[in-house]
Write a structure and sequence with these properties.
single chain; 161 residues; mainly alpha; Rossmann fold; three-stranded parallel sheet; 3 strands; 43% helix
Length: 161
């Protein structure tokens, strides 16, 4: 069952690469590199501290923080990512239905939206929410030691409204 699920995700990822290649979003070199990574047995992206230089803390950012309701990069997001990538180990976390190869599509979308190659080289795209020092997510509430009123939670607007 696990092998079938992995095979299915792998096929979907390879098909996504083909689509991105056909529409010119990613180059043939990027396709080859992504295929090699997909076909290799590799662990989830490494988000451990990188050592000296101030980038030892991890910042996990939900993809929904970066894109607006129409799927475009929010104004100011590229500059914010530039600053964040200098100060933190940044992990951009996709939706719950993340699958192998999503990092290629997300990276291509960010590139097309104006995020620099310098930033893209420093950002990681783990398949699951990693352990982090800071989480930035539009669906979260900060827990301050007291449980919130459950009835009050139902009046909170969805993050896209």
């Amino acid at each position: 069952m696990v092998v079938e699920a992995r095979t299915h995700r792998l096929v979907e990822a390879l098909e996504a690469l083909a689509r991105l290649s056909l529409d010119g979003t990613i180059s043939p070199d990027e396709v080859a590199s992504a295929k090699a990574r997909l076909l290799a047995e590799r662990p989830v992206a490494d988000v451990r501290p990188v050592g000296p230089g101030g980038r030892g803390r991890t910042l996990a950012v939900s993809l929904d923080v970066l894109r607006d309701a129409s799927g475009h990069l929010r104004p100011g997001a590229a500059a914010w990512l530039e600053d964040a990538a200098e100060r933190f180990r940044v992990a951009i976390v996709g939706s719950a239905d993340a699958r192998d190869g999503e990092d290629v599509a997300t990276r291509a979308w960010l590139r097309a939206s104006g995020v620099s190659e310098h930033v893209l080289g420093r950002v990681r795209f783990p398949a699951h929410k990693p352990p982090a020092d800071v989480y930035l997510d539009p669906r979260a509430l900060r827990f301050e030691g007291r449980f919130p009123d459950v009835a009050g939670l139902s009046v909170i607007l969805p993050h896209r409204q």
